[in-house]
């Protein structure tokens, strides 16, 4: 869950029975054993993946974060994710991964999609927001894109009916609508926007809208509206501050999340995660094809910020909020200072120089 979201506990300050002021901290009361180090499955991945996951490992060690990694080598040219990796994630419940390359065409299945379907990671969350000190065309951007992660065109659910005729399966689940509204409710968000193409996809996207409308009636304190996906993209690049939480079918969400990321500072700084009822996999929120950028790998200048912020989301998911706060504050200090930035943010720094700066800012 994003640091920019207000924890539910803080909302209780406004109740008369809690005579607290905003300047007084709330003591985090752990249950016995909560501080024990947690095992996290680590998949470095392809391309820049080992660089940015290595950055996270260094920062976690410097913070003495209460976790340790179980590393597995998985690459996009494998036929499928090895069973021992799946079992590790099922055991640990949490995974941190770099990007996995996906071949174009040829019937090769995406391992990213395999992971999501195998673990039923039905909700993808990408938080796109302005970082202090990082100039962008738009200000006041703070958008959470929640997309259905296991169904629709992007899930790879397609088959050849007869030679030359390919059918893509698209259906809807009410649970992504419930997840979006529950996220908005627990994080003091004010509005949920459903993104669709129901004017053309009347049955499939129509069912998606029906689910969103029905769920919205159970959250009267949250404003609900709808927008067609092509108009949504236009509105994103012209007036992104109008959006808060966006809930989308699978394919649209990937496009919307990458567009929102570009508006707010680029894919290199946007955190994300994929979650289900039992498991969570954290990774860079929006990739936009930079996984296999050979120049970044050779020059060792990949931007580690997105995965560092994703790992902070992971820390909060593991109920280590003070470590998450410390990491996010350090990253924001480095970005705001402007001395150490990678090429995509207008600088010349290497991955290691950014990591060293973040570690220095932890103190």
UniProtKB/TrEMBL annotation:
Residues 39-358 form the Isopropylmalate dehydrogenase-like domain. Gene3D superfamilies: Isopropylmalate Dehydrogenase. GO terms for molecular function: isocitrate dehydrogenase (NAD+) activity; metal ion binding. One of its GO terms (biological process) is tricarboxylic acid cycle. Keywords: Magnesium, Manganese, Metal-binding, Mitochondrion, NAD, Oxidoreductase, Transit peptide, Tricarboxylic acid cycle. GO terms for cellular component: mitochondrion. Its main location: mitochondrion. InterPro entries: Isocitrate_DH_NAD (IPR004434), IsoPropMal-DH-like_dom (IPR024084). PANTHER family: DECARBOXYLATING DEHYDROGENASES-ISOCITRATE, ISOPROPYLMALATE, TARTRATE, ISOCITRATE DEHYDROGENASE [NAD] REGULATORY SUBUNIT 3, MITOCHONDRIAL. Belongs to the isocitrate and isopropylmalate dehydrogenases family. Performs an essential role in the oxidative function of the citric acid cycle. This is Isopropylmalate dehydrogenase-like domain-containing protein. It comes from Gossypium tomentosum (Hawaiian cotton). The lineage of its organism: Eukaryota, Viridiplantae, Streptophyta, Embryophyta, Tracheophyta.
